[in-house]
Amino acid sequence: MFAQKKIQKASEPEPFELEVAQAICDLEANSNDLKAELRELYIVGAKEVDVTGRKAVVIFVPFKLLKVVRKIQSRLVRELEKKFSGKHVVIIGNRRIMRKPSSGQRQPKQKRPRSRTLTAVHEAILEDLVHPTEIVGKHTRYRLDGSKMIKVYLDPKEAANVEYKVDTFATVYKKLTGKEIKFEFPVQESH
Questions:
Q1: Residues 76-85: pLDDT tens digits?
Q2: What one-character-per-residue DSSP string does the chain give?
Q3: How many CB atoms lie under 10 A from the CB of residue 95?
Q4: C-alpha to C-alpha distance for 22 and 80, rounded to whole angstroms
Q5: What phi and psi values does residue 138 have, to the nearest 5 degrees?
Q6: What single string gives the DSSP state of each residue in 140-168?
Q7: Which residues are CB-contacts of 125 (< 8 A; sequence separation ≥ 6)?
Q8: Which tens digit of pLDDT belongs to each residue from 37-73?
Q9: Does residue 60 contact residue 94 with C-beta atoms inside 8 Å?
Q10: Could you please report the per-residue DSSP string of 84-101?
Q11: Among 37, 127, 53, 51, which Cα is nearest to 89's?
Q12: Whole-number mean pLDDT of the chain?
């Protein structure tokens, strides 16, 4: 019953989304250190993505609550991964993409904000995906057949904590944006 309060969606929530909302409710009830932060937290959607041999849980939170979630993200993800045994959990902010105003369409009253462009939203999804880890570099590789491959270099200090999730990140990003991506950790040279 309380799970309904943890998910706010225009349409009827799917059973999997209710399951995720219930898990967050249980965490709020049982965890003393996360109770205050989880009280105002709610989700707007959840998906299950197949990643080579296992599944990943993608949780969408409203953009305005993303700052609150970032403070507790590592603990929250750890607890949710225990609840969904063996599944990786990823938390992403829900963002809107506005289309480019074209000549045939009625002109909008205000200019489209940069944060609502396709590129900006895809960049932000990438940032959310790897959150505790920082992105230190990025390359776009154009292949001979015309396809693109984005190589993202993550902070090598965090390699031990994130390396096992790299395949999950790539698959979830491909599912959400349709772009092919590869995560790497740059090797540091000692002088």
A1: 888 888 888 8
A2: -GGGGGB--SSPPPHHHHHHHHHHHHHHHH-TTTHHHHHS--BSEEEEEEETTEEEEEEEEEGGGHHHHHHHHHHHHHHHHHHTTT-EEEEEEE--PPPPP-TTSPPPSSPPPGGGSHHHHHHHHHHHHTTTSPEEEEEEEE-TTS-EEEEEEEPGGGHHHHGGGHHHHHHHHHHHH---EEEE-PPPPP-
A3: 17
A4: 11
A5: -150, 140
A6: EEE-TTS-EEEEEEEPGGGHHHHGGGHHH
A7: 92, 95, 173, 176, 177
A8: 778 888 888 888 888 888 889 999 998 888 888 888 8
A9: yes
A10: TTT-EEEEEEE--PPPPP
A11: 51
A12: 84
Token pair belonging to 176: 């959400």
Q: Which of 45, 42, 57 is nearest to 3 (CA)?
A: 42
